[in-house]
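Customer escalation, tier 2.

The customer says the design service returned an amino acid string that "doesn't look like it belongs to this structure." They asked us to rerun it and document both sides in this ticket. The original structure tokens are below, unchanged.
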């Protein structure tokens, strides 16, 4: 039988502090350096999903990205949140500018360099939470459509 440690306040603080630790990484074959937090806290997960959700609700963005997988934009927001990459980027005035930056980062491999330095379990938790929210949003959308259909058919009587 396994002997489990008891969680103490000191241990809880140590775990919590692990989410804010920053390390320096090389991207683009060592040409550039970034600071990254390799752990994603639950608070960060909610922030990332919230930002990505607002982004993909922008009508211009929707028209531009079409049916592209939302997960890749969630990944971009993860890198935006977990690194200092966006700290020095100037000229981002709106979501269309942000979309351009995301496309550049995806195209150049910077996103992958960063993702390789984030704890896999944390990324999986983020993706799972995002998928749960998307599933609920889809169900709500379907329910609203059905309610609209019912309302519309009742108005025609």
């Amino acid at each position: 039988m396994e002997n489990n440690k008891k969680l103490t306040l000191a241990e809880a603080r140590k775990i919590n502090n692990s989410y804010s630790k920053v390390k320096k990484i090389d991207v683009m074959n060592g040409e550039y350096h970034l600071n990254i937090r390799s752990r994603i806290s639950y608070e960060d997960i909610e922030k990332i999903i919230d930002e990505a959700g607002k982004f993909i609700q922008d009508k211009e963005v929707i028209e531009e990205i079409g049916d592209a997988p939302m997960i890749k934009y969630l990944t971009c927001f993860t890198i935006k949140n977990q690194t200092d990459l966006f700290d020095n980027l100037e000229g981002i005035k709106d979501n269309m500018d942000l979309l351009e930056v995301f496309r550049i980062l995806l195209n150049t491999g910077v996103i992958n360099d960063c993702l390789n330095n984030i704890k896999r379990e944390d990324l999986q938790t983020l993706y799972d939470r995002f998928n749960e929210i998307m599933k609920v949003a889809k169900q709500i959308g379907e329910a609203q459509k059905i309610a609209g259909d019912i309302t519309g058919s009742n108005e025609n009587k």
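Tier 2 assessment: The sequence is consistent with the input. Residues 120-155 form the longest helix (36 residues). The mean pLDDT is 89. Sent an explanation to the customer and offered a walkthrough call.
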